[in-house]
Amino acid sequence: MLETVLAVAAPLVFLVRLVPQPLRLARTGVDDGVSPMAAFNQLLSEGAWLTYGLIQSSISIWLVSAVALFPSGVQALLLVRRSRTIDLLGAAAFGAAIVAAWSVGWLGAVLGASVLVTTGPQVIEALRSDDLSGIAPATWWISLADAALWGALGWVTDDAALVGYWAVLTVCAVTVLARLTWTGRRSM
User: What's the whole-model pTM score?
Assistant: First the structure.
C-alpha cells in the first residue's frame, strides 16, 4: 500500500515542482540568478527519460516525461536570451553523454545520475550570483517534497538510485534555499 501511494505521489509532486520557475519567468520577465544550463539540461533529461520509457515500454515513465517536457521546454525557451556559450556547451556535453550512453546500452545509468546535471548548474549559479530575484523559491521548497517522496520510495523498494536522487536533490534544494535567504537578508 505505501509503495503504491509513493509511486503515485512522487511523479505528481515532481511535475508540480517543474511549474513555479517557468511561471515566474513568464510572469515577471526577471531571470536574474536562474541557470540556463540547468534548464537546457532538464529539457534534455526529459526527452531522454521519454525515450527510455518508450524503449522500456513503461507508460509511467514516458507519460510523466512527456508531460514534463512542456514546463521544461517553456523554461528553456524563456532563458535562451540569457544563455552564454558555457551554458550551450554544458548542455551539448550532456546531450552527447546521453547519446553515447544510449548507443552502448547505459541510458538508464546516465539518467539515474541526471539530477546532478539538471540541478547542479542552478546551485552553482545561485552560489555565484548576488542577484537571485529570478529564482522561484517554490520550486526549491517543492523539490524537498519531491526528493523526500522519491527517497522514501527508494527505501521501500530498496532502489539505491532513488535514494541517491533524494540525497542529491535535497542538498541542492537546501543550498539554493539557504542562498536565497542569505541574499535576501543582505539586500535589506
Answer: 0.92
